[in-house]
Design a protein that fits this description.
Strand content of chain B: 15-25%
Largest sheet of chain A: 9 strands, mixed
Strand content of chain A: 15-25%
Oligomer: heterodimer
Radius of gyration of chain A: 19 Å
Radius of gyration of chain B: 19 Å
Strand order of the largest sheet of chain B: 3-2-4-7-1-8-12-11-9-10
Number of helices of chain B: 11
Number of helices of chain A: 14
Pfam families (chain A): Thiolase_C_1 (PF22691)
Protein name (chain B): Lipid-transfer protein
CATH superfamily of chain A: Thiolase/Chalcone synthase
Distance between the termini of chain B: 11 Å
CATH architecture of chain A: 3-Layer(aba) Sandwich
CATH topology of chain A: Peroxisomal Thiolase, Chain A, domain 1
Protein name (chain A): Thiolase domain-containing protein
GO molecular function, one term (chain A): acyltransferase activity, transferring groups other than amino-acyl groups
Shape of chain B: globular
Largest sheet of chain B: 10 strands, mixed
InterPro entries (chain B): Thiolase (IPR002155), Thiolase-like (IPR016039)
CATH class of chain A: Alpha Beta
Chain lengths: ~400, ~350
């Protein structure tokens, strides 16, 4: 069997994420991110062979299969166009589907993009349509995830302040990221701690915002990487894993699908000690406590020890293992794009193009996304050097 | 390019309404059947991919419950497209080409019975300029049919003949919803009559893919995928020539359709007039058996109907009825997006 084609990220583009982009249509929004990614890659629309687009449920904007309407805006006319939907992990899955097209040598240059324009509709409503004979999600995503956070605190013995530390860190990191939605210049740890309790133990300042935004990447083969005007990021490993939503054996605190997905990525990338070998992590943390939870799930800390990394400052921008230098989902959450932003920010780090939130000397970075009731996972590991043949 | 084949295909009996079962309950027998044909179990499958659409179910994340039906434990490599299952098959095919998996399970399902599918499909139109007018799928197809008649490409008797031929062919398809000749009926939207339109129904389908020797182990006569490609056209009908399908033509060229003649074509043409457009774009001669299953005019479960075309073409190869078959799937108003695959019954000489 021939070896796969190495895949390079040669262009990254985002919109400035905000609560409501009333100045553009959905088409205008995606076009803005795509255009920036093409500019970064030094390409025009004609340089793209195929387009892979992702977003979370169609009900979030009220447009069924929006890729059909967006074909023109994405320069996809006459090209293959695919639409991926894997719940909150979709941005990551979309990037992986696009990378597969290059790796399989089906196409040489692929534009991949994910978006959410939440102001077009109401995401809470979109998630709350009644489902006969099934457990309703109740009061949005926070109501679903809060019991699992409580389970984590009980299991690990973590002090109740850890979640606030994460939120304080991510909101400060966001101040360095011009594309981040929340720029809370007056943020203090005390303000986070005293914010209203929403779903115990999750406080208002420990939750993600609702954002309008899009993120795009241009992926290319080896020849495309050689032509790129800026250093590429190379994909060293990528994987998706899913498990059922609800079943008796499910561990909601640390799902097996997440562990398996990370293990697959590390195996592909030759990573044996993720804590030491990975320089930056863009992790899907929509509620602050998911940082210590995922640190354990992804193998950066032993079970019950993740909160100690957070508490000791390891995950700060200048720590040993910076987590969410961009400000993360806690600062920017256009749901369908959030996973791709994690993947793209990981790429920016190893390309040395993350600006004021650059992690000094980052050579390997992990992008992580999850979705649904913690049953869908997608991850990739990118490096500054091409993968070894 | 790595050799990948369809080694098994299964589908439900397609019905007008399946309100007594959930999507998962509708899908489960199909999953069991398609795996049973190969002897594989969920845990043996290298990659799973599905196609479906939340707007049919009327709720967000409708595909997550279907995954529970697959039995994704221990966790599985899995993905989903919010498209017809034919595109899920395309994603799985690419996955197998990378060598990351040797087998794949692909499934798709759609229940139109909970709502009015004509109204629901209007929601996939441009949300600012077109969707607020609620032009439904039959009205848009009627524009296309009238354009074809005006250009002299077809006429109403020719369209009626397509309907007659399709539903007569469906007599041999135990899964079809409309089997046997039907009266052409009155106009639904002029010039389309009842007989020119697909039945509204519920259904599901699944296929198993395998690469190289694995395919030969699992199936006596695998349907090898010789090529597969898909292309999209502009969304607005005003900037397209509705009597033509350049995206189908390009996809067919890229899939290698014309390298050698095909003997069978399963076309996803929900309206009789669309078969006229596709035959021309695909340069299909009269010697090609078009839609021996009855096609979408006999059963059109939205989101599964395209995958069923690929599955029916593969099944024709499996049973030796076809040596080289073409399968086509479409999405969007008036054939906006089209996928073409070529399946063969024998290993080709390299």
């Amino acid at each position: 069997m021939p070896a796969k084609e190495p895949v390079a990220v040669v262009g990254v583009g985002q919109t400035k994420h905000v609560a409501a982009r009333r100045d553009v249509s959905i088409a205008g929004l995606v076009r803005e991110a795509a255009r920036r990614a093409l500019d970064d890659a030094g390409l025009g629309w004609a340089g793209i062979d195929a387009v892979v687009i992702g977003k979370a449920p169609d009900f979030f904007e009220g447009v069924m299969m929006p890729e059909l309407y967006l074909a023109d805006a994405l320069g996809a006319v006459g090209k293959p166009l695919m639409r991926v939907h894997t719940a909150g992990s979709v941005g990551g899955s979309t990037a992986l589907v696009a990378a597969g097209l290059v790796a399989a040598r089906v196409h040489r240059t692929v534009l991949t993009l994910a978006f959410e324009k939440q102001s077009e509709s109401n995401a809470m409503w979109g998630l709350s349509l009644p489902v006969p004979f099934q457990q309703p999600l109740l009061a949005g995503a926070g109501g679903f995830f809060a019991p699992h956070v409580r389970a984590y605190i009980r299991r690990s013995g973590a002090p109740g302040t850890v979640g606030c530390l994460v939120a304080y860190k991510d909101r400060r990191n966001a101040l360095r990221n011009p594309y981040a939605h929340l720029h809370e210049h007056d943020v203090t740890l005390e303000k986070v701690r005293s914010s209203p309790m929403l779903w115990d133990p999750i406080r208002y300042s420990e939750t993600c915002p609702s954002s309008d935004g899009a993120c795009a990447m241009v992926l290319a083969d080896r020849a495309g990487a050689a032509r790129a005007p800026h250093p590429p990021a190379w994909v060293h490993g990528g994987a998706m894993r899913s498990e059922p939503t609800l079943f008796a054996g499910k561990d909601f605190v640390s799902p097996q699908a997440g562990k398996d997905c990370a293990a697959d990525v590390y195996r592909q990338a030759g990573i044996t000690d993720p804590r030491r070998e990975i320089d930056a992590v863009e992790m899907y943390v929509p509620f602050s406590w998911y940082e210590p939870m995922w640190l354990e799930n992804l193998g950066f800390a032993a079970e019950g020890e993740g909160w100690k990394l957070t508490e000791s400052g390891v995950t700060e921008l200048d720590g040993e293992l910076p987590v969410n230098p961009s400000g993360g989902v806690l600062s920017t959450n256009p749901i369908g794009a959030s996973g791709m932003i994690r993947f793209a920010e990981a790429a920016l780090q190893v390309r040395g193009r993350a600006g004021a939130h650059q992690v000094a000397g980052a050579r390997k970075a992990l992008g992580h996304a999850y979705g649904g009731g913690s049953q869908f996972f997608s991850m990739w590991l990118v490096g500054a050097e091409p993968p070894e043949a | 390019m790595r050799d990948v084949a369809i080694v098994a295909f299964s589908q439900t009996d397609h019905v007008r309404s399946s309100e007594e079962v959930s999507e998962v309950e509708m899908l489960m027998p199909v999953l069991h059947d398609v795996l049973g044909r190969t002897g594989l179990r969920t845990g043996d499958i290298g990659f799973t991919c599905s196609g479906s659409c939340d707007y049919l179910a009327g709720r967000a994340f409708s595909f997550t419950m279907a995954l529970d039906g697959v039995g994704a434990w221990p966790p599985i490599p899995e993905s989903h497209v919010e498209m017809d299952g034919a595109w899920a098959l395309y994603e799985a095919w690419v996955k197998l080409l990378t060598g990351e998996a040797d087998t794949a399970l692909v499934y798709a399902y759609g229940k139109s019975s909970p709502g009015s599918v004509r109204d629901v499909l209007t929601r996939q139109l441009d949300p600012y300029y077109l969707a607020p007018l609620w032009p439904d799928s039959v009205a848009l197809a009627a524009l296309q049919a009238q354009a074809l008649i005006d250009s002299g490409e077809t006429d109403e008797p020719a369209l009626a003949a397509i309907a007659e031929r399709s539903r007569t062919a469906a007599e041999g398809n135990p899964h079809a919803q409309l089997r046997g000749p039907r009266p052409q009926g009155g106009y639904v939207v002029r010039p389309l009559r009842t007989g020119d339109c697909p039945p509204v129904g519920d259904g599901a389908a699944a296929v198993v893919l395998a690469a190289g020797d694995r395919a030969r182990e699992l199936c006596p006569r695998p349907a090898w995928i010789r090529g597969m490609d898909h292309r999209v056209e502009p969304h607005a009908l005003g900037v397209r020539d509705l009597t033509d399908s350049p995206s189908t033509r390009l996809a067919a060229e890229r899939a290698g359709v014309h390298e050698r003649p095909v003997d069978t074509a399963e076309l996803h043409a929900p309206f009789t007039s669309q078969e006229v457009v596709l035959r021309k774009a695909l340069r299909l001669g009269d010697s090609v058996a078009v839609n021996p299953s009855g096609g979408a005019l006999a059963a059109n479960p939205v989101m599964a109907a395209g995958l069923i075309r690929v599955g029916e073409a593969a099944a024709a190869v499996h049973r030796g009825a076809s040596g080289r078959a073409l399968a086509h799937a479409t999405s969007g108003p008036c054939l906006q997006q089209n996928l073409v695959a070529v399946l063969e019954g024998e290993p080709h000489a390299r």
